[in-house]
Amino acid sequence: KAGVTQTPRYLIKTRGQQVTLSCSPISGHRSVSWYQQTPGQGLQFLFEYFSETQRNKGNFPGRFSGRQFSNSRSEMNVSTLELGDSALYLCASSPDGRSGNTIYFGEGSWLTVV
Amino acid sequence: QKEVEQDPGPLSVPEGAIVSLNCTYSNSAFQYFMWYRQYSRKGPELLMYTYSSGNKEDGRFTAQVDKSSKYISLFIRDSQPSDSATYLCASNPFNAGGTSYGKLTFGQGTILTVHP
Lengths: 114, 116
What we know:
The complex is a heterodimer.
Chain A: E1 5-7, E2 10-13, E3 19-24, E4 31-38, E5 42-50, E6 53-57, E7 64-68, E8 74-78, E9 87-94, E10 104-105, E11 109-113
Parallel strand pairs in A: 2-11
Antiparallel strand pairs in A: 1-3, 3-8, 4-5, 4-9, 5-6, 7-8, 9-10, 9-11
Chain B: E1 4-6, E2 11-14, E3 19-25, E4 32-38, E5 45-51, E6 54-58, E7 61-66, E8 71-76, E9 85-92, E10 105-106, E11 110-115
Parallel strand pairs in B: 2-11
Antiparallel strand pairs in B: 1-3, 3-8, 4-5, 4-9, 6-7, 7-8, 9-10, 9-11
């Protein structure tokens, strides 16, 4: 069974640009969550999508957005990139986003903003 | 104050040692407690999962939750160099409706090195 797939794995962007990251959840999983991981702040929750609807959102500015498609694949977008957005962006999938023992993470997308 | 506090270490132990990793939490609504292992430049891997108070054992790993003191522990017996990684505790109430869906609250992570 394939795991959570995130693309691209590594990317470098310039301040002011925007970036789109993609996540394909485990087959059958309908909940996709996104996290930002930095050395200073650790893992922080960005938002969660279920059946194409955002159900939950963390404390991030509006520059961070996401969406989910009918096949449960999800994308997140960061606009007007800042140096502080450099981080590992992780996608997690679960059947319904309501069970602690079934949340699985992808390998992440490493974003560097220069 | 963070909802989940974890000593970042680093922690260095010899091979074969018993490792104790700990977290404390402040949110009384937390019901589900997870431990994730994260190797360098990889995503977190679900290691152990516990609901409410009690112990859970899986091979060399034991997870322990004491809700009265809001304390979460992970014990690793007979530690191996391959256990060298960052260990993250996480929690979620899950039964708190919309604000809990898909959201795990993580500790800072403890960096563990097991040397031969």
